[in-house]
Amino acid sequence: MNVTELNIEKHVRGIRQIERSVSDCDEPTSEVVRGYCLAVRGSLTNDGRPPLDASGLKLQERLSLIEGSLERVAKKGGCPNL
Known about the structure:
82 residues, mainly alpha, 0% strand
């Protein structure tokens, strides 16, 4: 893991705590939260490296897409309890 990946991972720590906080809930919102946590976790553990693609930049791109999705959900008024 390179320095860029380590710096990015510092910003997304706490995913496990979020997953645990909704683990006993059966609400649709909880499913959405678990889905986002899974997406973040998948981004962090995906180490496939296409030619000429810096893994840290790919990780940053994936996390930015997840962040954008969360922002769109928030604008629509979704997940008010989170």
